[in-house]
Amino acid sequence: MSSGLELKDVTIRFGGLKAVGDLSFGVGQGELVGLIGPNGAGKTTVFNLITGVYTPTAGQIHFEGISVPGKKPHEITRMGIARTFQNIRLFSSLSVLDNVRAAMMTHLKRGILHSLTRGPVFQKEEAAIEAEALELLDIFGLADARDKNAKDMNYGDQRRLEIVRALATKPKLLLLDEPAAGMNPSEKDDLMNLIRFIKERYNLAVLLVEHDMKVVMGICERIAVIEYGCKIAEGTPKQIQCDPKVIEAYLGVAAE
Ligand SMILES: Nc1ncnc2c1ncn2[C@@H]1O[C@H](COP(=O)(O)OP(=O)(O)OP(=O)(O)O)[C@@H](O)[C@H]1O
Questions:
Q1: Global confidence as pTM
Q2: Fewer C-beta neighbours within 10 Å, C or N terminus of the chain?
Q3: Does the keyword Ribonucleoprotein belong to this entry (predicted)?
């Protein structure tokens, strides 16, 4: 797989604990892949490895043919990988619009003089950023909340704003860590439609970690299952739901 994300025999140890072991899988361009497994299986650790928070003890991670380990998180963001977090991480005292604007700055390479003088080029750039931020907020139904403090939004809206912020960095690959957590059934349905929509609209690849099996089985094209950091199965939602190893390790009676 020359384009997209590729993990090959990736291992990370924390002292005596092998949190991820010899893990290989990939996400092709424009693909929507699920990564599932029991609590503590290593899913968030995989996200932390892909985004440069951790460096693997062994193995390789490539994105569009470029090696990822050793790069800093902001360099990886610039390569086109964005993520959301299991525990929402917004600038809670900033407005909704400023949260998105701040994320958009990742791609700007402004000199201090340029920012201080606030000349016509600066003004034009600012106007373009605001227009783009508002367009994204509009798609997510959050444009009316633009001036609200992020902390004053309800939980579902905060989760959506997290995705908007990730999209604002113009990713090619979006990593979503439990985006449906705490959502009610109708919010989950909206979320599924939204993920499908943004994937098409922005030609995104998506890697989804999620415990809600209706969401995972409903939107993923392919699913990798891990247990104790090791892959125990990979396949289409249908194959995964019928896999005895997955049923035993994770799905249990829910899949029957
Ligand atoms: N920085 C760290 N130091 C030590 N152990 C860690 C560290 N990060 C993760 N772990 C351990 O690695 C294992 C995998 O954790 P991880 O959070 O990746 O699981 P998860 O599959 O995301 O779980 P959940 O579904 O509950 O979010 C756990 O045993 C966890 O305690």
A1: 0.90
A2: C
A3: no
Are the CB atoms for 30 and 205 separated by under 8 Å? yes
Q: What residue's CA is closest to ligand 1, atom 6?
A: 14
Query: Which of residues 183 and 118 earns the better pLDDT score?
Result: 183
Structure tokens at 147: 């001036």
In angstroms, the CA 208 to CA 2 distance is 21
Residue whose Cα lies nearest atom 26 of ligand 1: it is: 39
**Radius of gyration of the chain from Cα atoms?**
19
CA 131 from chain centre, in angstroms, equals 23
Tell me which residue has tokens 């970690």: 209
Looking at residue 95, what DSSP letter applies?
B
Give the pair of three-digit tokens for residue 214. Answer: 């209706």
Q: Which atom of ligand 1 is found nearest the CA of 45?
A: 18
* pLDDT of residue 17 exceeding 80: yes
Residue with tokens 């407005």: 95
Separation of 20 CA from ligand 1 center, angstroms?
Answer: 9
Q: What is the DSSP code (8-state) at residue 38? A: S
Distance 129 CA to ligand 1 centre (A): 36
Torsions phi, psi for 95 (to 5 deg): -70, 165
Of 245, 227, 255, residue with least CA distance to 237: 255
pLDDT-based confidence at residue 254 (cuts at 50, 70, 90): very low
The better pLDDT of the pair 27, 115 is held by 27
